[in-house]
Amino acid sequence: PVSVGGISRDVLLSLYPVTATKIYMNLGQPDIIHKYLDLPFDGIGLMRIEFIVSEWIKYHPLYLIKTGKPELFVDKLAEGISMVASAIYPRPVVVRFSDFKTNEYKRLIGGEEFEPEERNPMIGWRGVSRYVSPQYEPAFRLEVRAIRKVREEMGLKNVWVMFPFVRTTWELEKAIKIMEEEGVRRGQDFKVWIMAEVPSVVVLADKFSQLVDGFSIGSNDLAQLTLGVDRDSDLLARMGYYDERDPAVLESIKRLIKVAHKYGRTVSICGQAPSVYPEINEFLVRQGIDSISVNPDAVIQVKRQVASIEQKIMLEKLRKK
Ligand code: PEP
Ligand code: MG
Fold first, then answer.
1. Which pTM does this prediction carry?
2. Per-residue three-class SS string for 243-267
3. In contact, 220 and 190? CB cutoff 8 Å
4. Each residue of 302-321: pLDDT tens digit?
5. What distance in angstroms lies between residue 47's CA and the mean position of ligand 1's atoms?
6. Which of 197, 243, 253 to mutate to test the pocket of ligand 1 (most atoms within 8 A of CB)?
7. Which residue ranges does the record assign to the PEP-utilising enzyme C-terminal domain (predicted)?
């Protein structure tokens, strides 16, 4: 066992309180996972792959396909994911399929040719709308092949997936079908989540619940789209409009948890809110959220905070009896 200052990691981790709500961690850069192994997290609730693509692979996936090097994409992506999955095995790693916007894809080597000019990339060709489009679909298949490689060839069954920026049930059904064609399908040990970022997912939570195992609230985008506020607008942010704690956002979260639980689906949250506004965690725990995924520097604090919130709720229940 690895030891830190003479204390084994297991002993160190046992010093943290136990929580019923799982505390997950958000991660983008695979190799830094080793810096965080002493933190009390139950898994990676959001593994962004954009870092691997832009810093390790550097090429646009469609360019690699065109030049006959698709395996470079699959192998590098699988390497990054497996680095994290093996380091924290058997805890789950929820890998989010790519969610670059067109302006970001364009910056990858060879990207110019494949990316249209969009006036509003933030609400444009991103997330699932890419995977089901004839242009990007072959690249989405490479992402899925990387998942299959890690799960089947490397045997890391703790890798799950998450679809970002889901807007409609039909596109999601189509994307899941493509994934299945590549030999990756939902099962006991393979959970498929979607991000709740577009308000349509909350409005039709009952329909989406029938297609997936769980939801993860992307409060950054959910706030942007619920409030109609560009999350990159400094002006609106300064005026106080961009606020993930807005009652309209909280009401959406409350509704999503209620409906998802009715169908036996789990709900997590992986936006910035729980890391930077810890005061919303009491609300989340009271609504019965299953897990909270935070930035590495917030793990310890949120773990302790959630433990004390849960204790408080338990005491309240006892007193009422
Ligand atoms: C979110 O929208 O809350 C989220 C986690 O995704 P990103 O910040 O990558 O858009
Ligand atoms: Mg988002």
1. 0.96
2. CCCCHHHHHHHHHHHHHHHHCCCEE
3. no
4. 999 999 999 999 999 999 87
5. 11
6. 197
7. 9-310
